[in-house]
UniProtKB/TrEMBL annotation, chain B:
It comes from the Bacteria. InterPro entries: Spore_III_AC (IPR009570), Spore_III_AC/AD (IPR025664). Coiled coil: none annotated. It holds the Pfam family SpoIIIAC. It comes from Candidatus Carbonibacillus altaicus. This is Stage III sporulation protein AC. The keyword NADP does not apply.
Amino acid sequence: MRSVTIMQVVGVGLTATALALLVREERPLFAYFITLVATMIIFISVLSNVQKIIELIINLSQRAHVNALFTATILKIVAVAYIADFAAQISRDAGETSIAGKIELAGKVMILMMAIPILEAMIETVLALIPV
Amino acid sequence: MEPDIQTLFTIAGIGIIVGMIHSVLRMIGREDWANWMTLIGFVIVLYMVVNFIQNLFQHIQRVFHFF
């Protein structure tokens, strides 16, 4: 999949903003859909670059003999943060700040849930250091 | 997945057409028809957007090894 240049992203963004403004007077509902699809298009086009970065991170962590669980959890946390922020921004953009807040709350809770194994592992290593 | 801009313009087109149909039907005096047309337009666009969202989330799961 060819990588996306910044010009394409700017092109998509500006045309989408113009379309959203055009449709906002008559049917604000469709303007919401246009902003939604536009953000997704830009998000997908950036994902291919993110994939390369993630492969680099995985290679480095394997070479550094980091526990595979940690890198996998960190990648999942980044993914949840990405998606939660994406959805919260869009609903806030549409004027629904309360829904945006709840989405962010759910994202934080899920991230904390995923971080539990890492915290346990860290506590165990610390306890192992302390001579009981 | 090729980020296709085509859906963006289709949604804008549907939005404009539904807006026009709505105002035309209201001028004729058929208020209920106008609302039905807006609803139909909304359902079509929602279907397209949901497909797009599913595509995005599958892509994210593949990139972040999320599954």
